[in-house]
Amino acid sequence: MSTSLWSSLVEARRQRLDAETRWRRPVTFDGRGPQGVLVEDGTKVVTFASDDYLGLSLHPTVVAAAHDALDRWGTGAGASRLVMGGPVHAELESALATWKGAERAAEFPSGFAAGVGVLDSFGDHGVRICSDEHNHASIVDGARLSRAEVVEYRHRDVEHLEVLLREARGPALVVTEVVFSMDGDVAPIGAVAAACRRHGALLVLDETHVALGPDVGDDVDGVDVLRVGTLSTTLGSQGGFVAGGRAFVDLLINRARPYVFGTAPSPPDSAAALAALRLLSTPEGDRLRTRLANHIRRVAPGHPSPIIPIILGSDERAVKASMALRDHGVWVPAVRPPTVAPGTARLRVSLTAAHTSSHIALLLDALAAVPSAPDDAVPPAPPEL
């Protein structure tokens, strides 16, 4: 009886998603770097779907570090970071703290786990979490799992945030992405931090997509701040981290369930991230950032990040546009609700330093064949291409 009931429920939900053009399947891409094959149909493409913004997952120095760690410590961490982290985990945490100008850092199994862990740990009863309405799913889920009151402020609207902070009856926590993952726009960190300073709020910054800045630096002086990031988007590896004041991170490693109960990132992942982090401070790191910035200028002059959204409105338009690009040898996924708001289905172009000048030219030629957004498409508008 129960099996039949659940089979019916699953089928009904599947059909509903299919009717709404929201049924999705994993994409298998076989390639090293941007060029490769979509395994499902054998189409050769250049992919613009990767968040390895600086292309460090392919850098020989980073790959060699992972190989060395594999030979020394094996394939897995063996336990949670709290129970049995290795020397490479401790060294990476120290380097991450220095990178973010923090007293301490904690390494997490993923960036998603880091975001959930922070909000679940500090979102106690009596706390008000104020979250930008465009924040990533890890922030949304972490806030839901907490015991706090959760309110959203309008996207990048600091005046609205001020209202919510004034209405708080106890401690407040403000959380925002620095570069937003679907729109590629940037939060007004200086103004958000000033609001936190005035109201004594804890500021949580998700810096996952900060490949080229902004560097929050002096903007957060005088504010209690926790900085969340990944080891993948900028460092080309796998895992996440939180950096901040020693007392805050000490509490986090005692309370964050993904840290306490999740297996730590593997030694090769951690070693790769450490090598990538060191590389960022060299002329090679400068060269990669410059290359990425030049790609962005070619595709969307004046845009602040490697994430370039092209809003097409309906789910059907976005899917058709993605398929048209694939026919031109370019893979750009269609992003649809619930990942983005209804009516804002889009192409999400992601540029990396691993792309070549000819890859960018191919992208521009392919995008020229994509229909422009409808008049009633919801902002943000697509960049000029």
Structure write-up:
- It contains 14 helices and 14 strands.
- By secondary structure, it is an alpha/beta fold.
- The chain folds into 2 domains: 28-53 and 306-367, Aspartate Aminotransferase, domain 1 (Alpha-Beta Complex), CATH 3.90.1150; 60-280, Type I PLP-dependent aspartate aminotransferase-like (Major domain) (Aspartate Aminotransferase, domain 2).
- Strands 4-10-9-8-7-5-6 form a 7-stranded mixed sheet, sandwiched between helices.
- Strand 5, helix 6 (137-145) and strand 6 form a beta-alpha-beta unit.
- Helix 2 runs antiparallel to helix 11 and helix 5 packs parallel to helix 6 (137-145).
- The longest helix is centred in the N-terminal third of the chain and has 18 residues, at 2-19.
Key terms:
single chain, 385 residues, alpha/beta, Aspartate Aminotransferase, domain 1, Aspartate Aminotransferase, domain 2, 2 domains, 7-stranded mixed β-sheet, 4-stranded mixed β-sheet, 14 strands, 17% strand, disordered C terminus
